[in-house]
Amino acid sequence: MSTAEGPLVVGIDSSTQSAKALVVDAGTGRVVATGQAPHRVTTGTGRESDPRDWWSALTEAVRACGPAAHRAAAVSVAGQQHGLVTLDADGSPVRPALLWNDVRSAPQARRLVAELGGPQVWADRIGSVPGASFTAAKWAWLAEHEPEAARATAAVRLPHDYLTERLTGHGTTDRGDASGTGWWAGPKEAYDDTVLELIGLDRGLLPKVVAPGEVAGTVREGELPFARGTLVAAGTGDNAAAALGLGLRPGTPVLSLGTSGTAYAVSTRRPADPTGTVAGFADARGDWLPLACTLNCTQAVDRVAALFGLDREAVEPGGSATFLPYLDGERTPNLPHASGLLTGLRHDTTPGQILQAAYDGAVHSLLDALGLVLDTDADPAEPVLLIGGGARGTAWQETVRRLTGRPVRVPRAAELVALGAAAQAAGLLTGEDPAAVARRWGTTDGPLLDPLPRDAATAERIAGVVEGAGTLWAEG
User: Fold this and answer.
1) In sequence order, what E strands does 89-137 have?
2) Helices 51-63 and 159-168, interaxial angle, to 10°?
3) What gap in Å lies between CA 154 and CA 457, rounded to an integer?
4) What span, in angstroms and rounded, lies between the C-alpha atoms of 181 and 156?
5) Catalytic member of 13, 53, 177, 238
6) How far is 354 from 315, CA to CA, in rounded Å?
7) Is the CA virtual torsion 217, 87, 97, 223 positive or negative?
8) Which of 223, 244, 225, 222 is CA-nearest to residue 233?
9) Does 364 carry a binding-site annotation?
10) Predicted pLDDT at 369
């Protein structure tokens, strides 16, 4: 192994499915060591995980990095957004965490929107209109359905907050992840007492919001192979970390294809979309990260492939089938009680055409919001950055090119969330903007795919099915 040119840093991605750790040379961006360990998620009506499993997985992932992790000078944790972690007075979980894709809180989200004065009030006051994924709705659900658990809660954390606190012993969060709760107001950059009162949550249960570039603490003695006193950055949510990992400048569109799908771009203007399609999130640097999220992306498409016994790349063109892959309900469009819908079948429809229709439906959900995510003065010819687990799949690439009519760039760098966390940790040491660190590392280098003629007919057919199908699913 060659000698590192700069100090070593560790970036951690604690996602829905696993914990991933990268040891990175802060000077060059070279990944020195990696580790990974799985998470457990419940199935059924809810989506929950025990936060202690996240810590065990993080520990295992870091240990798999070997001695390099012990030499790291700084560490940062990025985590799945929105999850509700409730801790008792001893710091132990009161119950399993309610994850971002647990939609049981949809009725509470609708009620909160109405009680504060409607979507426009939320957009202006908070920056986002809360849906079932938002932490505020999850706390309202907990208070209504499990009041004893709510009363036993002495601290409320997000997933990355919980892990950072296990490292440092201090309750902290950052503006990027806090902006996804529904109780952090973008215009004021502070917790909103009116919303907290509305949901019955004591401000004293919430963590301190650490400013961009500020140290959250240092590693305390414990189970991890970090040196005691290693600097710990604020960390952030997974999408904000990926934006850091890409070194995003305003106006560049990003589509992230994972368990969920996201469309986002950095903006210098605070977004406020009263339709709720675009969440007005803050980024981890001081700008904004307008973002639209779908619940059904690669996992839904892979499920369709499995049903037909097909390889995920075995798509076929043509046909009239339309598939709405809302297997877990949907967030964009806002149909939390929806299910998958297949229509337009003919005698000659093939399984491969139905699989292509699943790709089309998943991508359409994201592209429907892309125009709202981007500022009006954004360059329409700017390549789309395609990231996430699906980004290297030919069928995903071709579908995005066909439905957008834009060129597509696929960064070679893997694990952009963990890389973004590593860039944040490196920024603590060098004093640089973490996005500038990532640009110096060349994280967006990769093949540029030319645009294809936009398939307007397919886009219009899917839009028509979505419009006509909304009445099929009761609100519940």
Assistant:
1) 97-98
2) 60
3) 54
4) 11
5) 238
6) 8
7) positive
8) 244
9) no
10) 74
Told to judge if 238 belongs to the known catalytic residues of this protein, a careful annotator would answer yes
Please identify which residue in the block is written with the tokens 């439906």: 361
Instruction: Give dist(CA 362, CA 326) in Å, integer.
Output: 9
**Pair type for strands 254-257 and 236-237:** unpaired
Residue 330 region, left (φ>0) first, then alpha (ψ -120 to 50), else beta?
Answer: beta
Enter the tokens of residue 52: 């202690």
Banded pLDDT at 138 (limits 50, 70, 90): very high
DSSP 77-110: EEE-SS-BEEE-TTS-BSSPEEPTT--TTHHHHH
The radius of gyration of the chain's CA atoms, rounded to the nearest angstrom, is: 21
Q: Which residue spans within 295-420 are E strands per DSSP?
A: 322-324, 341-343, 384-387, 408-409
Which stretch of DSSP H or E encloses residue 449?
A: strand 448-449
Quick one: what percent of the chain has pLDDT higher than 90?
80
Contact by Cβ (8 Å): 274, 120? yes
Q: What angle do CA 350, 351, 356 make, to 5 degrees?
A: 100
C-alpha triplet 187, 271, 172: angle, nearest 5°: 55
pLDDT tens, 397-440?
Answer: 999 999 999 999 999 998 999 999 999 999 999 999 999 999 99
Helix (H) / strand (E) element for 367: namely helix 351-373
- Determine if the peptide bond prior to 453 is cis (ω within 30°): no
Asked if 267 contacts 273 with a C-beta cutoff of 8 angstroms, the reply is no
Instruction: Tell me the C-alpha distance between 43 and 48, whole Å.
Output: 8
39 is in an annotated binding site: no
pTM of the model: 0.87
Rounded alpha-carbon distances, angstroms, from residue 184 to 122, 217, 242: 11, 22, 21
Average pLDDT score, the chain? 93
pLDDT at residue 104 in the model:
93
Tokens 């209504």 belong to residue: 144
Question: Cα separation of 158 and 239, whole Å?
Answer: 14
pLDDT of 368-387, one tens digit each? Answer: 878 788 877 778 888 999 99
Spatial distance between the Cα atoms of 199 and 136, rounded to a whole number of angstroms: 7
Tell how strand 408-409 and strand 448-449 pair up.
antiparallel
Question: What is the model's pLDDT at position 475?
Answer: 54
Quote the tokens at residue 73.
């000078």
Phi, psi of 116, rounded to the nearest 5 degrees: -85, -10
Q: What is the pLDDT of residue 4?
A: 61
Question: Which residue intervals of 271-331 are DSSP H helices?
Answer: 298-307
User: Tokens 């920056």 belong to which residue?
Assistant: 127
Residue 185 parent element (H or E): strand 184-185
Q: What is the mean pLDDT of residues 382-397?
A: 94
